[in-house]
Amino acid sequence: MCRVLFEVSQAPFPQAFVGMQTLKSRVLVIVALVAMSGWALFPRTEVVRVKRDGVFVLDTIKRVPLKRGLDLQGGMHLTLEVDQSKQAVADVSDALDRALKVVRTRIDEFGVAEPVVQKVGTDRIIVELPGISDQQRAEEVVQKAAFLRFQITDESQALEKAIPRLDGIIKAKGITVAAAPTTTDTAAAAATGLTALMQRTDSAAPAGDSAAPTASEGPFRRAILPGQMPGQYLVSSRDYAAIEAYLQRPEIQEALPPGKDVRWGIDSILNGTDAYRALYVLDSRAIIDGTYLVNATPAQDPLEGAKVDFQFNNEGGRRFRSETGRHIGDNMAIVLDDKVMSAPTIQSAIGARGQITMGGRDLQAAQDLALVLRAGALPVPLKVADGRQISATLGEDSINDGIRAGLAAVLAVVLIMVVYYRFSGFLAVLSLVLYVLFTLATLAGFDAVLTLPGLAGFVLSIGIAVDANVLIFERIREELDHGKAVRTAVEEGFRHAMSAIVDSNVSTILTAAVLYQYGSGPVKGFAVTLVAGIVASMVSSIFVTKTFFLVWLQRSRGQQTLSI
Amino acid sequence: MLRLLHGTKIDFIRHWRTAVIVTIAFVALGFGSAAVTGWYKYAIEFTGGTLLQLRFEQAPDIARVRATLERAGIPGAEIAQFGSATEYTVRAQEEAQVAEQADGASGVARKISAALEAEFGAGSFTIDRTEAVGPRVGAELRRGAVIAVLLSFLVTLAYLAWRFEWRFGVAAVIATAHDIIATLAFMKLLDLEISLTAIAAVLTVIGYSLNDTIIIFDRVRENLRRNRREPLYDTLNRSVNETLPRSILTHATTIAATMALLVLAGEVIRPFAWIMTFGIFTGTFSSIYVASPILLWVESRWPRQGDARAAAQPARA
Known about the structure:
The complex is a heterodimer of chains A (564) and B (317). Chain A has helices at 2-9, 12-41, 70-73, 92-110, 135-143, 158-173, 186-190, 193-204, 207-211, 219-223, 237-248, 250-255, 314-326, 363-375, 392-445, 452-465, 467-481, 486-518, 522-555; strands at residues 44-52, 55-63, 67-68, 75-82, 116-120, 124-130, 148-153, 224-226, 232-236, 260-271, 274-289, 293-301, 305-312, 332-336, 339-342, 353-357, 382-390, 449-450. With 564 residues, chain A is of the alpha+beta class. Chain A has 2 domains: 2-43 and 391-555, Multidrug efflux transporter AcrB transmembrane domain (Multidrug efflux transporter AcrB transmembrane fold), CATH 1.20.1640; 148-359, no CATH class. In chain A, the strands form 5 sheets. In chain A, strands 7-11-10-15-14 form a 5-stranded mixed beta barrel. A 4-stranded antiparallel sheet of chain A has the order 5-6-4-17. In chain A, a hairpin with a 2-residue loop joins strand 14 and strand 15. In chain A, helix 4 (92-110) crosses helix 5 (135-143) and helix 17 packs antiparallel against helix 18. Chain A is elongated, with a radius of gyration of 36 Å. Chain B has 317 residues and is α+β, with helices and mostly antiparallel strands. Chain B has 2 domains: 13-40 and 138-316, Multidrug efflux transporter AcrB transmembrane fold, CATH 1.20.1640; 49-133, Alpha-Beta Plaits, CATH 3.30.70. Helices cover 64% and strands 10% of the residues of chain B. Chain B has helices at 16-32, 34-37, 44-47, 62-71, 95-100, 107-120, 135-163, 166-189, 196-226, 232-264, 270-301; strands at 49-56, 78-82, 84-92, 125-133. A 4-stranded antiparallel sheet of chain B has the order 2-3-1-4. The radius of gyration of chain B is 25 Å and the shape is elongated. The interface between A and B is large, with 80 and 77 residues. Strand 17 of chain A pairs antiparallel with strand 4 (125-133) of chain B.
């Protein structure tokens, strides 16, 4: 009080001069803030990868640098974990680091504009693919082990010899398996839609009789038929589920011929009206594997359909040539992730180049296979712990709805403020405009991702942002009621409202900080917008509004009334 | 100068008993509604499970959708309309389905879409949103949310004890606890599920309510300093009355924002908007009728050193 009286009683000229100085610097600060915000939000040219006629090219586009979350632009989010269901992994973190490199290479080639592939904690990989809607395809590309082996098919009739033993074990131990529908098997699901569907409907009815071993002959003897080449057998798709279930049993696995691998073929074989699955018995020793591979490209062959051409490096090429040279006339199974893709007969020694036929699957499947082969095999199997996908239309709807709600909120707030506080309310509205600008600029500046809850938080903050101004204006009114002069009332109003504004805002910031620390994804985005909003609102309602008042007081010297 | 509720001298604190009854009645009503609708439902992100948001070309027959899913081996899936007549959500949250997702979260979602495609034909619907959460992720989020709420409590308590006094801190935290309970009762009344967004909304309500309490307390602090003779009862009433115009104005602008969200921002945000709208009311209510009487009660139990005025107050209350 005393201080203010003292100021007023000073000579008018120096006081006005000092006022001009601080006022000038205040205006300069605001101009600088606006310029910085404008610069932060100015549409800038960025280089992005876009798909044009099926090819990825680098292109430049102009856009406002505000990042939208997946829920606003559409896309996929995957959380990957090491799959330890089949085999325990000793050092998960290290395994994940190696897997991360492979996944990143694959995603980069998959062709998404701005993918995110990162490790979270010690046991997770997060993959974010904006604009991707084919979840199944993306998951396959990310999860495919891509472990490629070339193995010679068995020529010693090892399985034939083992069948009585296997059936004996089944009979002796009384093992029965419920022939579950084959849909849980990924290979069956990956087979062409028609065969997968047939298997599903077929296996339901006759599953009972195939699963129960008859007294005279065991299930293996009955179900396993000789195939078209040494080491190849055929199993009717009706019996597939039962045989696969038997093969999974540890007792059976122990009794399988030593030094041999038993692997299913990837596709169904149609013989008349019956569908068969091929079962291969292979020498366990691989003549070569995918680590020597340097390149793989998809191709379309008029006779064989889609295929992948691959190339080994020099060392692999030499090895492949000598191995195939020794096995001329034999069948070489190309085994990808424990499934036999094909088993061509070796006609002559093969050099550094070879091909994998896709067996009726389309060119996209070949493209994806070539992609994962180039990126290399995954060091550990990965599983999807958490998968979300949002369509681009829904994202766009969300943004439009959010913008509409924001505009409506702004309109209502403007109306309330101007009707209630008149001229002062108009000043508050001006600073509200700056508030919106500052908040968006802060978000852009911190590279924050705008999510749907974040957008809602922003709209909400427009309503709350004027609170500080309301507090100040009410204070000014009180000071005017006490009969103070306009200038003094304004000064006092701002000063007295300060403690309430600071305390209430800091407590909200603390809550938001906790949300940020412990929230995840969209909620984090919400917390960031909340904090950005609070900071911007303090700057705009305290500093900017006060400056507007000072400018007004400067221009209308000796003003006796204030429209508030 | 347009003025609302200016210079009022309402004896707010006198009505604290009525306020207690209103609160208890509302909370009882809210939690009592569980008898009809069942206890809280947790969202997919907490329980694990699968959610699909579908947009059909034509309004589908729900019984047929349900039968299709049962046949496909997804019993007990919840099918609910979501916004317009052609938009639906399908939720599979049963334990068996969650367990099925342990080895790959998206399997159930794929099964659902394949079954629906076989029944209704490809292209008869589009999938707008899929959420597939494995059991472990859900458990972690649940723990994180509880930690977040408790921690935000501690942090605000410490801040208020530092900036004001422990008395104010205790009163503010009890008022906030009231808000949480009332908001939870409200959520049950509307049968809103507990999701991450809902928790964010509840935390925002906490922040907003604290805001409100602090602004009244700030005035109390100032009035206490300025007017040492006045009984606390009167100081509290005066402070509430003096801040009343501000409360009305700020609530008007905030309600405007939440209403805009409620009406215009779409289905996903609606639960958030509902909780916020209610939170603004309960926040104001608790600042006036919970925080202030509690402060008075604390003062009467543990009077300040060399300050006898509080002792006379309970008689008037």
